[in-house]
Design brief:
single chain, alpha+beta, 381 residues, 13 strands, 24% strand
Length: 381
């Protein structure tokens, strides 16, 4: 279609599923801080007054149950939960973690993939959106701004749980404006809908691209009129249930594997980071305006089974030439990916809210897959 609408949603750090993701990744960081080769597949469930941990871990350095529980409570405190029914001081923590299967370790210890699977990476040039689809990028940024206002005490009536959704107008695959915005943010029982909407409008104005605006009647804030009961009190959270929020907002395919709770030997995570890294550098190098990459792996095998690339007719050189450049210059084995992106470090808790992609690479090594340091390679295509 020449003109169309496309929507994506995000959820806040206080959304129950994201609470679970952040706890899982904070624990991955804990294990990696003790042993850079630690293996983790940590699942978290959060509900009223309870956190349940399950899954598999393997580490050469011991990690005590007390350390694990401390990290869980600190993560809940950081997110901002001090409410009746889910408070970082009073929540009970049930730890059911156990040792990783030796059968899986057989493949990973020799440098192979920890599982079979397919992983997709995507990048698109849509202006000021960090090579991300504009609907998802703005959905993330709006919730980040609302969180900032809450944490700075500028909107004390806002509580941690929340969702956003942007419907963007496109013309010839170019985003040209916002059609509507939906925001549901948990709040204190004393807060009025008018004051909540005023804060949302202020935050919205600060995140919209220059020159964009939106009538107030197309901004839908807490459509039911009330959102007091929220977080794990109102909705059970599980690790890995927000995989589309974590990636591209539905604008690109997803292989189905979640990221959070997994150490980087799991190609679900590391290969998805690598495909994003490649796609972003390809688009930033002006080889294409849009790029999708797929990798597939078999458990225990080092080399990927397949490498697929699609530039959707926007490519300035052939897709075959780009693939050849990747194959000649980039090590796509699980070990090669971890080394190239320096993934065996405790850098994952930050990724578990507001998206794994479209972020700034940080000095501590977080979001290394967002660096634009392959452009010299791709510009030679």
């Amino acid at each position: 279609m020449k003109d169309y609408l496309f929507a994506s949603e995000s959820v806040s750090a206080g959304h129950p599923d994201k609470v679970a993701d952040q706890i899982s990744d904070a624990l991955v960081d804990l294990f990696l801080s003790k042993d850079s080769q630690a293996r983790c597949a940590i699942e978290t469930l959060v509900t009223v007054d309870k956190v349940v941990l399950a899954g598999e871990v393997s580490s050469l350095s011991p990690v005590s149950n007390e350390e694990i529980e401390h990290i869980v409570r600190q993560e809940i405190k950081k997110i901002g939960y001090t409410q009746k029914g889910f408070h970082f001081e009073t929540v009970s923590v049930l730890n059911l973690l156990h040792t990783q299967s030796r059968d899986i370790a057989l493949g990973v210890d020799t440098g192979g993939a920890g599982d079979q699977g397919i992983m997709f990476g995507y990048a698109v040039n849509e202006g000021a959106s960090e090579y991300m689809p504009m609907p998802l990028y703005l959905s993330h940024r709006l919730l980040e701004e609302l969180t900032h206002l809450r944490q700075k005490g500028k909107a004390p009536f806002l509580l941690p749980d929340g969702k956003s959704q942007f419907v963007i107008r496109y013309n010839e695959d170019t985003p040209v404006g916002v059609d509507s915005v939906v925001v549901s943010n948990q709040h204190t029982k004393e807060a009025s809908l008018d004051e909540i909407k005023a804060v949302v409008l202020k935050a919205l104005k600060s995140v919209l691209p220059k020159g964009w605006s939106l009538p107030e009647n197309k901004v839908y804030v807490n459509p039911t009129g009330r959102f007091v009961i929220g977080g794990p009190v109102g909705d059970t959270g599980l690790t890995g249930r927000k995989i589309i929020v974590d990636t591209y907002g539905g604008a690109a395919p997803h292989g189905g594997g979640a990221f959070s709770g997994k150490d980087p030997s799991k190609v679900d995570r590391s290969a998805a980071y690598m495909t994003r890294y490649l796609a972003k550098n390809i688009v930033a190098s002006s080889l294409a305006d849009k790029c999708l990459i797929e990798l597939s792996y078999a458990i225990g095998m080092k080399e990927p089974l397949s490498l697929y690339l699609d530039t959707f007719g926007t490519g300035r050189v052939s897709e075959e030439k780009i693939i050849k450049t990747i194959q000649e210059n980039i090590d796509l084995t699980p070990n090669g990916i971890r080394e190239k992106l320096s993934l065996n470090r405790p850098i994952y808790e930050k990724t578990a809210s507001f998206g794994h992609f479209g972020r700034k690479a940080l000095e501590d090594g977080s979001f290394s897959w967002e660096k634009l340091d392959l452009m010299d390679i791709f510009q030679k295509c």
